[in-house]
Amino acid sequence: MFHRMVVVGVGLVGGSLALAARRRGLAKEIIGYGRGEKNLRLAQSKGIIDRYFSHEEKIPKGADLLILATPVQATVSLAASFLPSLEPGCLISDVGSVKARIVQEMERLLPSHIPFVGAHPIAGSEQWGAQAAVPDLFSGRRCILTPTRNTDADALKKMMGFWRQVGAKVEVMDANLHDRILGVVSHLPHVLAYALVNTLSQTDVDSVDLKNYCSGGFKDFTRIASSRPEIWRDICLVNRRAIGRSLGHYIKRLELLRRWIRDGEGDLLEREFAQANEVRRQIS
Amino acid sequence: MFHRMVVVGVGLVGGSLALAARRRGLAKEIIGYGRGEKNLRLAQSKGIIDRYFSHEEKIPKGADLLILATPVQATVSLAASFLPSLEPGCLISDVGSVKARIVQEMERLLPSHIPFVGAHPIAGSEQWGAQAAVPDLFSGRRCILTPTRNTDADALKKMMGFWRQVGAKVEVMDANLHDRILGVVSHLPHVLAYALVNTLSQTDVDSVDLKNYCSGGFKDFTRIASSRPEIWRDICLVNRRAIGRSLGHYIKRLELLRRWIRDGEGDLLEREFAQANEVRRQIS
Fold it and tell me: Which of B13, B99, B283, B284 to mutate against chain A (most A CBs within 10 Å)?
């Protein structure tokens, strides 16, 4: 399908995509790029990539697919630095958790002979780096593509096929809508989990080490607080409006619960919890 | 160890304790009590209890251990209704997630010939009822006992042995301290999970069904929102002060994060997330 696929950022998502593409024969050669040579060597030794390079200007000739899999603030600037060396027709795509700004800036940046398709596979975990990459990360998971009216139709078709081949359920969606949805279902919970862990560590209860008393509920709740700080810093900055809004809604809800708890409103609390029960049941 | 153990509330915790006690030979006969006869029949058919009764006044003669394993608001009033039929020396204990008020009210209620030891095994899951009971629920888990200076020393010793026998790591702690610790590490996350699910269901993003976009992070985060509403209503009411306080701290932290996100404070956000990373690592 592709001759030379370049993966920028061979981490959990980039590395898994390389493995999945290789397994499905979607690229003849897969080449890695990244800041950390140790991670790139690991990726090569694990067979995730065939080889790697580490200076933007040295992108190999003949690359026809460039996947940007870095923290979202780096996406566009990296594309800009690769651009002078790219050959016409090289398709660029990404895997970022925020889409509107990336899509807009990529369209502003790229000439018409370098097509771009924004993509976000809703898959991942709190693990990082090439050592976390697995070939079936995208199996049965949603991958949202966010073309605009300017998006090259052939490029879109190619990327839809590509994601389907690696097992994803492809969905096409407006980039702004994507960001508003993800702001609630994914970005908000990450912020909440980080905040809970820090609230715990900054609460003093008679100098007891509270970490010793955390059980399954706390651990599940905060698993995502092990996610990579840089990635989530960038997501918060780039999708700040949607995250700010959902954080505002959430704080309001907590204020309400705090009042109900203070005032001993048992019926209201029970109703609140029962509603959550029912909705949560529909999610799993 | 005990001749006739009565378990009031044969649910996840009460039922598991019955199974564990039976397996370790800690009670010759185990008798269930509860409001739902269907659950009691299930418990009997699964061998969790030998038999059951369903009117307080009909508590079997010769009960020497009464375990109260109901939502915490029911604990003391149930003890009061059993009291006239209890024989001197019958030991009462509980498994409630809140201790100070229960311990205080039980001491006020009970005569000196009916000893009480407050207990809270930090074990559980979001599942309910006798069908969720398992004999090893307490293996390796902490069980906090909260005696006061009035607590009968023999009764305390017996309950420490009992919990050790079912595999728990016993810890003795002041009831108020217990409630403040659990208010942060357990009660707060439950309230937050319920609130997140309800925030999701009350957020309208172009009429999209947001539930379809929830992935692993959201699901882990909100697993505890499947916990039984009655139980958590009671915990919120009985431990309202500690929960209110930790909810207040948490809301403040979220307000801070909201400002940082709004103002694009990347460095502060990254530091916040990296700190949480480090603390979370120490928990698992």
Answer: B283
